[in-house]
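[job 4471] stage=fold_predict status=RUNNING
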Amino acid sequence: MKLVFATNNLNKLKEVQGLIPKHIQLLSLQDIGCTEEVPETQSTIEGNAIQKAEYIKTHYGYDCFADDTGLEVEALNNEPGVYSARYAGEQRDSNDNMELLLKNLENKHNRKAQFKTVIALHLNNKLETFTGVCLGEITTTKHGKQGFGYDPIFKAKGYKKTFAEISLDEKNKIGHRGKAVKQLLEHLNKL
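[job 4471] inference complete, writing structure tokens
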């Protein structure tokens, strides 16, 4: 089976490749010649995932899946949410995003947060979604060099280390994307 993962984020691609069984050939957008920016103009994480999957199916004809992920911080009315990648501006700079988030949480005691990933699968002309959530909290300073995005300031519930301080294998077991991919794989294995 060939499936396109509709992402230009090489970190996401690497994370998901480690979870997909060998009998599924995972293609990137680069592999199918998609060089344009895939639209993400919806107001929800689910909406963006669905929009990206439908775009690839419509314009390139491939069965595919797309994800969208957001960090939702309770004390900030679930911001940055759908705007997580662009929280500090269109330059999509992870460091700027983390700095702004830490600044916005400066005088807040509630640091509860969750990462949410929604995967939209477009397969055999059917659309399905899978959601993974990882509860945790935002640290007061950055810790660790691994991972990407907000990983240096997110600590999963029950963990003493941030996502940027644990291995990719461990992150995939407890993380939002890993949980959503697990649901996707369970679905694919039933076909």
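[job 4471] summary: The two ends are 11 Å apart (CA to CA).
[job 4471] exit 0
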